[in-house]
């Protein structure tokens, strides 16, 4: 299975990089992991709705350029469906069973995802109604994907 995470912005925090490196290494025994970062659009703190839409559109175009037509896309969105770790594991298992070997998770920038990305997504996934830093979400997502594989394989880790 090939799992990609496409995210907006460059990861700078060393502690997050270390955690991501660890889970990427652990996941290597289960799947090929590809972490893709697209540039975030520079924007001042206060933007009009129209300017926010322009920023999201530009970031969305960059995101979409990284997604192949045959990929199953799961976009992280606050309005998405919340799942337990077991449900995520079962859903990934089902995708693998039915030949969906390319899965792309998408994490938007600070303003969220453009409608074009949300429309391309096969599924919207929410981790919480709370807002998390999008860079931190990469680490949380990697950990949950790792946990899902451990659950699928019946291996110790999940509690």
TrEMBL record:
Molecular function GO terms recorded: rRNA (pseudouridine-N3-)-methyltransferase activity
Cell location: Cytoplasm
Residues that bind S-adenosyl-L-methionine: 76, 108, 127-132
EC number: 2.1.1.177
Subunit note: Homodimer.
Function: Specifically methylates the pseudouridine at position 1915 (m3Psi1915) in 23S rRNA.
Protein name stated in the entry: Ribosomal RNA large subunit methyltransferase H
Organism name: Filibacter tadaridae
Classification of source organism: Bacteria, Bacillati, Bacillota, Bacilli, Bacillales
């Amino acid at each position: 299975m090939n799992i990609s995470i496409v995210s907006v912005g460059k990861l700078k925090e060393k502690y997050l990089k270390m955690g991501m490196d660890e889970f990427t290494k652990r996941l290597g025994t289960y799947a090929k992991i590809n972490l893709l970062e697209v540039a975030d659009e520079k924007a001042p703190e206060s933007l009009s709705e129209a300017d926010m839409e322009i920023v999201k559109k530009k970031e969305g175009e960059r995101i979409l350029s990284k997604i192949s037509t045959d990929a199953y896309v799961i976009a992280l969105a606050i309005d998405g469906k919340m799942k337990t770790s077991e449900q995520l594991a079962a859903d990934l298992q089902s995708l693998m069973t039915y030949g969906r070997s390319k899965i792309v998770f998408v994490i938007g920038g600070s303003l969220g995802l453009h409608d074009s990305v949300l429309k391309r997504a096969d599924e919207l996934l929410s981790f919480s109604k709370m807002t998390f830093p999008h860079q931190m979400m990469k680490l949380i997502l990697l950990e949950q994907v790792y946990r899902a594989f451990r659950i699928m394989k019946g291996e110790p880790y999940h509690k």
